[in-house]
Amino acid sequence: MTTTLTPARSSGAARASRRAAAAVLRTETTLFRREPAGLFWIMVFPTVLLVVLGSIPGFRDPDKALGGIRFVDAYVPVAVLLSMIMAGLQAMPPVITGYRERGILRRMSVTPVRPSALLGAQMGLHGAAALLSAVLSLTVGRLVFDVALPRQLFGYALALLLAVLSALALGALVSALSRTSKVASAIGSAVFFPMMFSAGVWLPVQAMPDTLGRIVELLPFGAAAQALGEAAAGGWPGWDHLGVLALWTVLLSAAATRWFRWE
User: Fold this and answer.
1) Gap between the Cα atoms of 261 and 175, Å rounded
2) 10, 43, 81, 153: which is deepest, by most CB within 10 A?
């Protein structure tokens, strides 16, 4: 009797878990849409910054320091990466840490909903928002400033995916190391500005001095900026840059898994 009931119970539990996970995703999506500030900084601000900088006449002229391309051409990948940095470091960690701080994850552990479902929903929503922001930046760059669309689409998509995964893994690590949402915001802000610099927000990676450029390319967003730029120009992203992104994703994910606590 026990042997025949066990598979049925396991199947029923699995279905209940899936339904609970779907409910969590719907709820988190609703809450995510109700945060206009977070949506603005992830999905709108990078494109607004692109428009502001692209409106400067000198930034629409070819620049020898950038290999003959315009500053606005070089800045589109930066705007794409900025949305990921915003999502991974500024938006996601305070939410996840706040859930842990208020005991929500602990209470979920005694229900059919697993805390991992909530974590997965948060990472999926922030990753999707960053990707939509990337599409918006590419579209505005093309329509407003005549920036060419990526010529190596598959390579660009691969670099984009690895960059998103790196950003989310970094955000998960910040969440793992933070006891409270205030600590998460502080750590996120401390990491935020170096990552912005490495992505080329203030100075495109292509225009950095050789030594500084080589150092920056060892960081996830520096490597991502180079990979996206190479794919945009029509070449396949350098395997060294893709390898740096993949390595950072694995290392950050492993560290986040090692130190993450539900309570």
Assistant:
1) 9
2) 81
